[in-house]
# Entry
Amino acid sequence: MYHVWRDMCKTKTAVTCLTEPRFNDKQKEDFNRLFRCTLRLEFSQNPNTADAMGVAVLLNKNLVKTTGIITREVVPGRAMLVEMRNVSNSPLSILIVYTPNTSGENAMFWRTIQQWFVDNN
# Structure
């Protein structure tokens, strides 16, 4: 992950979204401790296996305020919503998705996301 941090700093990237990050809670804790001054990691893991699917977000603390960020699992291991404030203090929401490949699963996935937003707004 060092190379991702280096690239984010070099290109002045504030937010990086990842698919299939393969993190677990201990690795997240270790990562956030190691990069506590520069990055914040949040992720949603596949509930059935850590070796497949999953989404994550890396926040560059040099460019975005990371206090008050809310992350919500929309579809565990497939979709995560990050709610934060942008530089002008306006609300900013980022939906990170890792969609299924088959058309039937893909269609059901988007219906599930749509229903989640209906139920949670």
In short: The helical segments are 2-10, 25-34, 103-119. The first strand starts at residue 15 and ends at 19. The radius of gyration is 15 Å. Strands lie at 15-19, 39-44, 55-60, 70-75, 79-85, 91-97.
